[in-house]
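Record 1 of the preview.
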Amino acid sequence: MTVSFAHEDSLKALQSKASLSEKLRFLHDTLRERYDFIDRIAITVYDAQLDLLKTFAWSSEDRSPLTNYQYKLSESESLMEILQRGQPRVVNDLAVFAGAGGHHSQVINRSGYSSSYTTPMYKEDDFIGFIFFNSTRKHVFTEPVLADLDMVAHMLSLMVSCEKMVLETLQATVRSAMHFTHHRDPETAEHIDRMARYSRLIARDLAEEYQLDDQFVEHIFLFSPLHDLGKIGIPDEILLKPGRLDEREFALMKTHAQRGKDLIDELLRNYGLDGVGYVDMLRNIALHHHENVDGSGYPGGLRAEDIPIEARIVSVADVFDALTSERPYKKAWDNDRAFQALRDMAGHKLDRRCVEILIIHRDEVEEIQRRFQENRFG
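->
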């Protein structure tokens, strides 16, 4: 038997610690060697609680026509049909959507794409999003091509599922630790759900200004609930004190920011999660979400743009939800009063642009509040 080590694994890069976007671009480049008409691959992920389909990652030579974009899946008849039929969809001439179809279909059509192949992604039978293959040519998605695209789609689906599983494991570990350590912690699950979505809302509108890609925006949503991880190390008599903290108590409370960052580093090492995408964002959120734009915050006394944008975003989302939430020691403020408080803090404690964006999107804020109402103290 002849033994040879001459063969090169053409997909070896998929086993690296590269980000999902980098792996998607690699797969796209590999695919184009055989099918040069595949001009775009895009992934959307689904938030079932708000019925939102959100752009997540894409690969094309030009800028994607849909970035930092979300829409209600139930309002897209063409995509809903894919789920109802339980089958992927081929459209070999996108002109059929001219003047019809949803906004997504019309944008893709106007961007010069002429055909598409759309397949749903599932994780253990739960729908988690779509994968789109687009071409500027018509009638290219033949059965032999589709057979190869199905393999690529399943690889991408597994990668997305794996990334989601890793993040969910990290989140569940942190939440369980916080629950067992401070089972009377006044920050409810609803608070976490709301402020995560407020954070994503702000990040989405800042995306163009700060050149934030879709994965950055989605990771803001995933990581913002872990901002107070360091409170695990704060004694209950301080964490749950109904009155004002004295100087000694406040000094100890402030250590939760550094404790949070240190715990994240330890969790990542212990669980072998150093390859988690955007992990520095998670560290920044835990460490810097109490920095103030005038430099009066902690732990670093950072000012303005020196504070990572993810920390500035989470700070506004966290403060707003704290003001509008009922706790055993306080009544919830109404939105008018809370928005005015944010305006008063803008420019010295909170980032002014982040505050403006949250207030501008009052309708979306109130939809989030309706969907995730307090049920522990409220």
